[in-house]
Amino acid sequence: MLKIGVNTFLLTSPFTSEQVDIFGQFKAWGCDAVEIALEDASHIDADIIKRALDEYGIACSSICAAMGPGRDLRGTPAEQEAAVEYITQAMELMAQIGCPVMAGPMYSTVGRAEQTPEDEYRRQWDTVVAHLRRLAVRADNLGVKLAMEPLNRYETDFINTADQAVALVDEIGHRAVGILLDTYHMNIEEKDSAAAIRKTGNRLLHVHACGCDRGAPGGDHINWDSIRDALKEVHYRGSLVIESFTPAVKVVAKAASIWRDFEPSREDIAIKGVAFLRNHFMTGF
After folding, report:
1. Given a cut of 70, is residue 50 above it in pLDDT?
2. Are 14 and 40 in contact (CB under 8 A)?
3. Is 62 in contact with 99 (CB distance < 8 Å)?
4. Which of 50, 152, 158, 264 is least surrounded by CB atoms within 10 angstroms?
């Protein structure tokens, strides 16, 4: 059975050690796992998080990379340094709490989307690859992995498709680096989301399962049967995490252009979404 989870961004930003009661709420909604959106490693006390995870009987399936302004592996030297430091601190935290995967667009600041000349894009590409090769060695030593996420064209110009993510991961060439695919972004950028999943194959480390409008999965036009079948075909064994947002969490809402509610409440997103995923993906894994 795949672990089913929800990202903490649904309820709060930033998530801190003082908010571990959220884990109990997620458990009550039917989650096996929680994805912690880590905006800064200083927000988290590993011992407190580990005790709370054990207390509520829930796993931390993933750390969601928060690549805000100032963190950019293809940016200025200072931005590159800040991104490396942030990712390194997150990986060290993961090792302490037993979290296997850090997932997200670790290659760049979210929202940096511009027309980039081919030679400049290649220079940025080489810079990102060099950083991620070094980070991969550290990840491997800690026993954790990094999953690169393609984002839609409005959020990045760097990696938009599974093909680009495969090319990046293959050039990095390290077992500690793989791919995260998000059904919301795939719905915008891929011709065929199931085919994109098959292209990633065993590189696929993590999946964000959201409706086509960022709402609950299942009540939308995404072909969930084909998603399920493709995940089975590549023998996916990671987690399915709902990464949805609401206008109530204002910092995230602005960053992700969330101007309206997708469901009647945040609880509806989690309860309906988790129930759908559990029912739809309950067999064959």
Report:
1. yes
2. yes
3. yes
4. 264
| pLDDT digits 0-9 by tens, 75-113 | 999 999 999 999 999 999 999 999 999 999 999 999 999
Compute the average pLDDT of residues 202-227.
Answer: 95
Q: Tell if the pTM clears 0.90, that is, is over it.
A: yes
Can you list the alpha helix ranges (DSSP code H) found in the chain? Answer: 21-28, 46-56, 77-97, 118-142, 162-172, 183-189, 193-200, 224-233, 250-255, 266-280
Identify the bridge partners of residue 177 per DSSP, sorted by sequence position.
146
> Residue 10 has which token pair?
């649904």
User: How many CB atoms are located within 10 Å of the residue 11 CB?
Assistant: 19
Q: Which of 155, 158, 66 is nearest to 104 (CA)?
A: 66
- How far is residue 241's CA from residue 238's CA, in Å, rounded to a whole number? 10
DSSP assignment of 174-236: -TTEEEEEEHHHHHHH-S-HHHHHHHHGGGEEEEE---TTSS-TTSSSS-HHHHHHHHHHTT-
* Torsion (CA) 7, 8, 9, 15 in degrees, nearest 10: -150
Q: Are 231 and 207 in contact (CB under 8 A)?
A: yes
Using 50, 70 and 90 to split pLDDT, how confident is the model at 44? very high
How many residues are given for the chain?
A: 285
CA angle 275, 276, 281 (to 5 degrees): 105
